[in-house]
Description:
The chain is an all-alpha fold. Helix content is 70%, strand content 1%. β1 and β2 (23-24) form a beta hairpin. The longest helix is centred in the last third of the chain and has 28 residues, at 305-332. The chain is globular and about 60 Å long.
Amino acid sequence: MKHKLIPFLFILGILIPTSINREMTNVFVFGGCTLLLLSLVYMLDKQKNIPIKSFYILLFINCLLFIFTFTSHLTEYRFGNSLYFLILSLIFLFDFNGLDTNIEKYRKSLQIVNLILITFSISIIYNFTPIVNFLHNWFSAFYIELLPNMFAQKKPVSTFGTHSIAGFYYFILFILNFVTYYFLKKKLHLFISLLYMLFLYNIQSSTSLVYFLVCIFAIAFLLFKKSKRIFFMSAIVISIIIAIKFNDITIFQKVNDKLFSTNNGLLVRYSATGTLKENIKYITRHPFNGIGFGYSNTYQYVDSGIVEYSLRGSVFTLLAILLGFYHFLRRNLTKSISIFIFILFLSFETGFSNLIYFRSLFILPFLVAYLNKLTNENTSKI
Length: 382
């Protein structure tokens, strides 16, 4: 039974509703996270060997957050957030080496998620009303105008609500399918990778366009390894298409414009008048003293994971989370893959509190377990 729940939790995490008839609710999220918490505890009990360093990190993170909660100047609290930090720190304890589940069971769950998200994405792009209405009714998130705005622009955000999160996880799914093709030679997964690549372009967020470029480099690397002649012919064709399609505006310029837009992107968060100015002011004045699960309208809580972790638990909690996350990756993956995944998640933390986002908590164990199983069974190809 060791770790056999992870594929099921992966599918569940993609499909947990966030609204009922377009009215946003946390009922399904907290119910799902409670189930996730119980499942993690059950699997860790079966795992037996608990990494002691990661266990100390778990205690440090959660104890420090509660200490700061009751010693901060705030008198209003949001204790529901403690569930996300607890689940994240429990995930840090997992050891997927010697995983006793066949890779095909994990691959089938990946295929189920592929089918669901591809169906949703194509339905959004081509405005297939039954699916669009279904998503609108059950997956409205963050604020009421967000999903209608995404759908009006035909951005295939599926169950993720916003284009930045959808961009990040479509790239994760591109990686999972791409490495599946690379190691197992399943051509269907290469085709699915290309679909996710197209969805990334359609999303048109700064995040998705950056990852779209990375996808191009990944495909180019694969072509180069397969056949240098095909690689150079493809490069010429793609260059001509880009030149015709984008005229004098290159995709690199589009990425730059979106990243440093005054309406969105990093400047909106980190400039002197940005949304995070009060958070940053508090952190610079009180770097070793957080607010825990205290709440105030003065602060923003999801616009940056790096800032939120520092605000809630001081720089000590930020460092503990990063250390726990890296130890978790390094324990389960090769050095190069663990560094890549660490940098990938850390880069997205600059614009969103992703590690404690509820869907991330369901997806992260599957991502690492799948890559662990895939690479361990194909070490000669790494």
